[in-house]
Amino acid sequence: MKPLALLAILLIFLVGTALHVEPSDAQVYKKRNADGSITYTDKPLEGAEQVEIEQAPVTEFAKPAVATQPDEPEVSATGGDSAAEAEAIPTEFSVAITSPEQQQPIRANNGQFDVLWQSDPERLPEGYVYELFVDGQPAWRGSDSNQVTLAEISRGERRIYVRIVDAQGNQVARSDTVVVFVLRVAINGAGAGSGGNGGGA
């Protein structure tokens, strides 16, 4: 193909692009002149034949992907992670007997009276339990109550305390020892003795 013909085709494409004409819609005609030269035109001249023009491929530029933010963990109203707060175990524990009072005389002919206490936290984490002792001997153990009814406690001076232990049995908190005086009427020797026995509520 002669350079002149190539130039003509190029001009047609440029003109079509400038006029926003799709190359597939532009028509090119080829006519061989009497002197043997070839003329290219966009008009259907007499004796001219239409030239098939291949449509240039169209490439779309890929749109940039929008970065997505990872899901953030749920945050509680206090600003901490709710799951972490639910599983958090306090680093400090405390417990104190609220009843009976220190040096209190307790009239209990049947040797029965209540012991109440308060703790921090108020609800123990899983695996932690209370242990109630009377005169150094275990009288009750549990985690779902802060009140115990002791029974058949012998008359005389009795020393009571409560402690909190973890799942391995390690003490994490202990109340002060409360000293009370159990008053019982001895009938034929009943109620005598210094030992203490406890029954859970």
UniProtKB/TrEMBL annotation:
Keyword Signal: yes
Keywords: Signal
Signal peptide coordinates: 1-20
Protein name: DUF4124 domain-containing protein
The species this protein was found in: Pseudidiomarina gelatinasegens
